[in-house]
């Protein structure tokens, strides 16, 4: 099953406002990107870590959502981010894959690379499964 990335992104106005784009959305893998822009930077023209974390939280949440049972929703419980390389231009590319899909949590690994495929960030996020039928 592949979901409509544009429809999923439209459910997250903050992600839309910050410039996150979704490319592909399936339960086994969600991909998205965030182009570099001056308004998304910190000192020295470096893409802000918070912008990268918005990208990873967005693709990770979509991945978790696509792995939920019918009628359930999700919310981030924990997120551990390792920022590995600065992004000074181009685009940050994120790929989210489920590590664990359980009854009460979904754990997602999100890897971010730059345009050259070099690692930029790695995130492990734990999402709660809310309102799942018993």
From TrEMBL:
<comment type="similarity">
    <text>Belongs to the thioesterase PaaI family.</text>
</comment>
<dbReference type="InterPro" id="IPR003736">
    <property type="entry name" value="PAAI_dom"/>
</dbReference>
<dbReference type="InterPro" id="IPR029069">
    <property type="entry name" value="HotDog_dom_sf"/>
</dbReference>
<dbReference type="GO" id="GO:0016787">
    <property type="term" value="F:hydrolase activity"/>
</dbReference>
<feature type="domain" description="Thioesterase">
    <location>
        <begin position="44"/>
        <end position="120"/>
    </location>
</feature>
<dbReference type="Pfam" id="PF03061">
    <property type="entry name" value="4HBT"/>
</dbReference>
<keyword id="KW-0378">Hydrolase</keyword>
<protein>
    <submittedName>
        <fullName>PaaI family thioesterase</fullName>
        <ecNumber>3.1.2.-</ecNumber>
    </submittedName>
</protein>
<dbReference type="InterPro" id="IPR006683">
    <property type="entry name" value="Thioestr_dom"/>
</dbReference>
